[in-house]
Amino acid sequence: MADLKGKTLFITGASRGIGLAIGLRAARDGANVVVVAKTTEPHPKLPGTIFSAAAEIEQAGGRALAVACDIRDENAVAAAVARAVDTFGGIDILVNNASAISLTGTLETPMKRYDLMHQINTRGTFVCSQACIPHLRKAENPHVLNLSPPLNMETRWFAPHVAYTMAKFGMSMCVLGMAGEFAHEGIAFNALWPRTAIATAAVQNLLGGEASMRGSRKPEIMADAAHVILTRPSRAHTGQFFVDDEVLATIGKTDLSEYAIDPEADLLPDFFV
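Now predict its structure.
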């Protein structure tokens, strides 16, 4: 099976949750991981900083670079990419994981929160992709992976939280457009989304606390699925909207019990699938 040894991954939102899990999985192969996030000091409700994440990645067998960066600032992103290239010699993989969420209706969504979701989710994905593409062009098997949902254009996914859905679908539209735009250059652009809720700080703090956590799977399922995608030939696998369990099934892994937080709890389906 192919691995990520020596590859350099630029991962946004990598200080915790799914982003960190993807970094740790790559680190076990001996990859270089650029931990890109805002958190430099511990937060009472959000475990992990860029420095603690970098330490975990190095303990797992990888090399890490912790970069404090607000992806809403294109100059900060450009500086982060430059540091990554200076440190590791290039970028092979971009993982657009950073995201903001507010499951609120139209009248309940302050414009400040609307702007935050669109600036981080859609705009941040676009900015990071734009900054990394010149370096991905030089990579042997370049991939961009957006943690965003399939483009299911159904009313039921928009009506309860139209602002959030628009922001997440914007990330998926980047996949659709950039996969076509850069297909001739061999840069893969794909999306990955979970079948079920994933045990992250967002679930803990926003989606129902402990009850939702019990019905969630561990972030490692997304990391293992991402690893499968990112080790495939980029020219042959692009423009796809993957779901974690379906990806793992392609390598014969159908027993997913190891990922359950509580094997006795009913799994909670995620949005958009």
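DSSP finds ten helices and seven strands in the chain.
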